[in-house]
Amino acid sequence: MAPFVEVMRQADVNKLYDEKLNRKQERSRNRRQNAPAPDPKRKRRGRVRSRIFERGMGLDLPFLLLVLVLLVIGMIMMFSASYPTAYYSPKINDSYYYIRRQLIYAVIGVAAMLLISFFNYNKLHKLAPIMLGISYVALVAVLVVPSKIHRWFEIGPINIQASEITKFAIILFFAHWGSLYYDKMQYAKYSVVPGFLIFASTAALLILEPHYSGIVIIGLLTVVMLYVSGMRTFYLAIGAVILVVAVIGAWATGILTYAMTRMDGWGQALVYTTDEMWQTTWQTRNSLYAIGSGGLFGLGLGQSRQKYLYLPEPQNDFVFAVVCEELGLVGALIILLIFALLVWRGITLSLRSKDRFGKLLGIGLSSQIGIQVVLNILVITDWLPNTGISLPFFSFGGSSLIMLLAQMGLILSISRTANIEKQ
Amino acid sequence: MANNRKKRSEKGVLQLLRFRTTILILLILVVGFGAISVRLAFLQLVQGPYLQEKAVEQQLVDTTVNSKRGTIYDAKGKILAQSASVWKVVLAPAYLETDEQRKYVAENLSKILKLDYKDIYKKTKQKTYYVVIKRKIESDEREKILNFVDALTKKYAKMSNVITLFDDYRRYYPYKDLASSVIGFTGSDDQGLEGIEFQYDKYLMGTPGRVITARNANQTDMPFEYEQNVEAKDGNSITLTIDETIQSIAEKYMKQGLINNSVVKRGVCIIMDVNTGGILAMVTADGYDLNKPYDLSDADLDAIKALPEKKRSQAESEALSAMWRNKAIADTYYPGSVFKMCTASMALNEGKVNDNSSFYCGGSVTLYDHTIHCHYTAGHGSQNFFQAIANSCNPAFIQIGNLVGAEKFKKYYQAFGFSEPTGIDLPGESDDLFFANNKMSETDLAISSFGQGFSITPIQMLTACASIANGGKVVQPYIVQTITDVDGNVVKNTETTYKRQVISTETSRKMCDYLERNTTQGGRNNGYVAGYRVGGKTGTSEKIGNSRKGYKDYIASFCGFAPADDAQVACLVFFDTPTGASYYGSQVSAPVFVDIMSEVLPYLEIQAEYSDSEKKYVDTVAGSYVGLSVKKAQSAAKSDGFTTTVKGDGNKVIYQMPSAAAKIPTGGNVVLYTDKESKKNKVTVPNFVGYSVSTVNSLAADYGLNVSFTGVTSSSNSVSTSQSIAEGSEVKAGTVISVKFGGGTVVHD
C-alpha cells in the first residue's frame, strides 16, 4: 500500500494549488514593495481602494462565479421545464408561477449568501450540538404534525424539508467533533461510535417518514466527515464489507428485488409488471423517455416535449431530465463539469482555511453538493428509488435554495478568512 | 499508514486530511460523476432511439380521416348506394369548469340532437377530452351545433375546444329495398356487412387518411408544432350488371306473387343474361329497407312479441338473418320437375333417346320397396319423348334416367355445375347436397331423374338452364360489371367466362324446341308469353326437413328462357312454401314468370313476333281525330284500323273515346262525339271474367267498349281471369278495359 500512498501524496492537487497561490502572492508582494512611493494625496484613496480590493480578493471569486453561473443556468432550465405544467394546471394557470417565486428565493438566497460570507463561521462551532438537537426536533416534528407526507413542515408561505436541516446539522456537528478530537479520531469511540449512533438514530426517524434517499445522503455525509476527520480506513473497510455482504445476501434471497419493487418500482421503469407498478413508475419512465429523446445535442432549449404533462412535476427532482432532453448529452456533461468544478474548488479552498473546523465544514458542504448531484441523476436515470433528492441550483423550492445559497455563503466566508490570513 | 500511533501529531493529521480529501475528490468527481456521465451517455446514445420512439409514441396522436365509400351503380348508371357527408359530435368535458356551464351545454346539446338530457349531463361531468355525443348527424343539425358553439364561446371564456365536429360519412340507398339482398348494407364504422357491400368491401372502402399531431398528456394540442397529413383516398365505385328497371319489374310481380299465394318463406327471382352470365335482376322477396337494416317487418315483430321473453333476442336475430339472407344463392332446394330439362338434355346428348322414343306411364312405378307415383295417378299411358317432357311424367323420366345411367348422370351433374358453387361474386353461396359419398343407388337415380333427392341452389339451377338455352355453354354468373376509381379509370372489368361445354349445340337447339313447345302447349300456366318464343319448365318439389308442423311444405318454381330460337335471358321464379289455393309451380310461379317476362322482354328490345291469331289482339295506338269533320275523322280512323261510332248531331268531332295515344286492339271501336250532350252518356261495365276470347270480344262490341287483351289468348282453352275496371262501373263509351286471360293445360308436377 505504501508506494501507492506516496504517489497519491505527490499528486496532491491541493498542495500544488497552494504552492501556486503562494508563489502568486509572493510576486504581488514583491511588486508592491518595488513600486515607487506614491503621492501622499493619492495614498489615502489608494489605501481605501486597496482595502475593498483585498476584501474582494478575500472572497474566492472563481467559486462565487461558479455558484452564480449554476444558479442562472438552473433558473433558466427550471423555467423551461416548469412553464407547461404551470400553464396547464387548472389551479395555477400561469406559466411564470414557478420562475417568479424561484427568482424571489434566489434574490433572497444570494443576499443571504453574501451576508453570511462576512460572518465568522467559527461562531458556529459552539452551535453545532444545538443544531443537531434542532435537527432531531425537526425530524420528530414532521412525523407528529398531521400532514399527507411527513417530510415537510410549513412555516408561512414556505415549506421546509426536515432533512435539509438534518444534512446541515450532520456536517456541522462532525466538523465540530472532528476538529475537537482531531488527534483521537483513530479510536473507534471517537469516530465509529458517535458516527453510528447519530446516523442510526437519524436514519430511524427518516425511515418513518419515509425518506430513503435522505438516509443515503445522511449516511454518505457521515462517512465522508468521519473519513476526512481521520477515522481508520479499517473501520470503513469493515463497513463496506458488511454493506456488500448485505446487498449480495439480499440479492441472493430475493429480498433485493422485493425491496426494489416496494421502493416505487426502482429499476423497473421500462418493464411492465402490473398496472399499479406501471402507474408508480410513470414519473421515472417518462424521465427516461425525456433523457433518451435528447440524444447527443438535444432538441434545443425550450423544445422538450416530455414536459408537456408527460413528466409529472418537471420543476422538482426531475428537472435534469428536461435538461438532458433539451440540451442533449453535450449540454448535460457541460453542466456536470461546472458542478464538478464547483465541488473541487469548494473543497480545495476549504483546505486552505487556517483552522480545522473551517476545513472540515467546507469539505462537508462542498461534498454534499457533489453527492446530491450524483444521487439526483441516479434517481432520474432509474438507478436509485424515486424518493426525493433535489438537484442543487436547479430544482424548484424556496427553503432548499435559500439554505443552499446560505451554505455557499459559509464556504465563501471560509475562503475569505483563509485568504485574509494568508496575507 | 499511521495506524499504530496512539496520538497523532499536528502535521500528521494535516497530511492525512490532505490525502483523504484527494481520495474524496476522486470518489465524488471521478467515480460518482463518471458513473452518472456514463449512465447518461448510455441512455442518450445507446438507448436513445428506443426511448425516443417510446416518447414519440405517446406524444403523437394518430387520428383517422375516413375515406368516402364508393358508389354502387346499376347497369344503366342509376345510383343504388351512395355515401354522403355527415358529422360526429365529440365533447371535451374536461374544459367545462362550472356546473352552470355543464348544464348549459347539456341542455342545448340534448335539444339540438334530440337526446336525453340526463345522459349528456352525466357525460359533461367526465374528466376527459373525448366523449362521442352523437354519430352521423346531418347538415341541418350541424348548422345548429355550429351556432351553439358560437354562442358558447361568446358566453364563457376558453370554450373553443369543448365541442368538435369530425367528418364522417353515411350510406344512403335511394331505392330503399330494391335488390336489398344483393346490395347489402354497412355497419356503423362504414364496413360492409352483407351483399356487394361486404363482398367488395376492400374496393369500396378506399384508404382512410391520417392526421398525426403532437398532443400533451391531456390530449390537447401542444404549442410544439408537428403535424403530418396523409390524404384519405376515396373508395372505388362499382357498376352492377343489375338493371334497376328489370329488378323493379321482377320485384313488383314477386311481391304480388307472395300475396296471391300466401307464401310463408319468401320467394326468389333471378334473371340472367344467358350468353354473358351477367345477372340482370336478383330478387329475394320481400326485401328490407337498406337504410334501416335492423327494422324487422311488423309481422316478424308481432311473432317475436308473442314469444316468451327469454327466446325473444334469439328469435330477433334469427328473423334478421332470415330477412338479410340472399335466398337466391344461400338456399338449397330440391329442384323437382324443373330439373327434368337437365335429365332430358343428358339423355339426348348421350343419344339414348330421340323424338320417337316411347315411354309408358301406368300412374306409378315400383322400385324394390319404393312405389313412386306420377302426379297424374291415372297414368299418361304411352308417350313419346316430347310428351314425356310436356306431361312432366315421373315414370317416363325414371326410364330416361335409367337410360342415362348413374355414372353418366353424375358426370353431367358435375358438368352442369351443380357439384360446386357457381362462384358468383356474392357472399354466402351454398354448396349443393348430393348423395352420401357421391354414390347413387338405383332408387337414388330414379328420384334424381325428376329432381328429388339432392339439393341445389336457385343460381345453380338457373345457370344450368342458361347453358341448355345458350348452346350448351356453362357460364360463370356474375353481378359486378366494372369497378372504377375516383378518377373514372377502370380498375376491374368482368369478362364472360365459359367454364365448359356441357351439351352439344345440337342438343341445346333440340331442348330449346321441346321446352318452347312445352310452354306453347301449356299456355300461361306453362310460361307462355304472348308474342314471344319462350322455353321453360315448371316444378313443384316437396320440402324435406324444416317444414311447418302438420303440413307438407312445397317449393313452387318455374325456370325458363326467351327467345327460344336465340336465347337472351333466362329467368327462375321460386316461391318457398306457398300456402294459398295452390302450391303447384304451374299455378304459383309460372304466371309470375309470364308477367315478369312480358314486361322485361320488350324493355330489352327483343322483337315480339305475334302469331296471326294473336295479331288481332295486339294493341294499336289511336290517333287524334278531334277537330276534324265527321267524315274526315271516320276515314282517318278507318285507315288506322279502327271502326267508328258517331254520337251527337254536330259536324265536327269535339271529343273522342278512347283518347288520342291510348292503346286499343286493332279493329277496335273509336267513339266520336260531336256535341256536348252526347258526351255525358255513360255505359255500365259488364262482367268479362270467365269467358273465352271470342265471347269477350262480342260482349265488348255490344256495350260499345274496347278490350285490351293480356295474358295467353292463343290457346283454344284460354279463359279470362280478371278485368281492369270492375263490373258495374260507369264509364264513357269506347273506354279501354284490359282483360287478362289464363288457362292452358295445368300440370300438377
Main sheet characteristics of chain B: 7 strands, mixed
Radius of gyration of chain B: 39 Å
**CATH architecture designation of the largest domain in chain B:** 3-Layer(aba) Sandwich
Q: Tell the overall outline of chain A.
A: globular
CATH topology heading of the largest domain in chain B: Beta-lactamase
User: How many strands in all of chain B?
Assistant: 31
Q: How many structural units, i.e. domains of chain A?
A: 1
Low-confidence runs of chain A (pLDDT<50, min 5 residues)?
Answer: 42-56
* Most strands sheet of chain A: 2 strands, antiparallel
Query: Which percent range describes the beta-strand content of chain A?
Result: under 5%
Strand order of the largest sheet of chain A: 1-2
How large, in whole angstroms, is the Cα Rg of chain A?
A: 23 Å
Q: Percentage of helical residues of chain A?
A: over 70%
Dominant shape of chain B? extended
- Can you count the helices of chain B? 25
The helix-and-strand class of chain B reads alpha+beta
How far apart the termini of chain A lie comes to 38 Å
Largest interface: A-B, 65 and 49 residues
Instruction: Report the top-level CATH class of the largest domain in chain B.
Output: Alpha Beta
Beta-strand percent range of chain B: 15-25%
List the helices and strands and how they pair.
The complex is a heterodimer of chains A (423) and B (749).
Chain A: H1 2-10, H2 13-34, H3 40-58, H4 61-88, H5 97-117, H6 124-144, E1 152-155, E2 158-161, H7 162-180, H8 192-208, H9 212-229, H10 233-253, H11 255-262, H12 275-280, H13 282-294, H14 319-351, H15 356-380, H16 398-422
Antiparallel strand pairs in A: 1-2
Helix pairs in contact in A: 3-16, 4-5, 4-14, 5-16, 6-7, 6-8, 7-8, 7-9, 7-15, 8-9, 9-15, 13-14, 14-15, 15-16
Chain B: H1 10-46, H2 48-59, E1 60-65, E2 72-73, E3 79-91, H3 99-113, H4 117-124, E4 131-137, H5 139-155, E5 163-172, H6 180-183, H7 195-199, H8 201-205, E6 209-214, E7 227-230, E8 237-240, H9 244-260, E9 267-273, E10 279-285, H10 298-305, H11 309-324, H12 327-330, H13 340-349, E11 358-361, E12 364-367, E13 370-373, E14 381-384, H14 385-391, H15 394-404, H16 406-415, H17 442-448, H18 458-469, E15 473-475, E16 480-484, E17 490-493, E18 498-501, H19 505-522, E19 535-542, E20 554-562, E21 569-576, H20 585-588, H21 590-603, H22 612-615, E22 619-621, H23 630-640, E23 643-647, E24 655-657, E25 663-665, E26 669-673, H24 676-679, E27 682-684, H25 693-703, E28 706-711, E29 718-723, E30 730-732, E31 736-743
Parallel strand pairs in B: 2-8, 23-26, 28-31
Antiparallel strand pairs in B: 1-6, 2-3, 3-4, 3-5, 6-7, 8-16, 9-10, 9-21, 11-14, 12-13, 15-18, 16-17, 19-20, 20-21, 22-25, 24-26, 27-30, 29-31
Helix pairs in contact in B: 1-2, 3-4, 3-5, 9-21, 10-11, 13-15, 13-19, 15-17
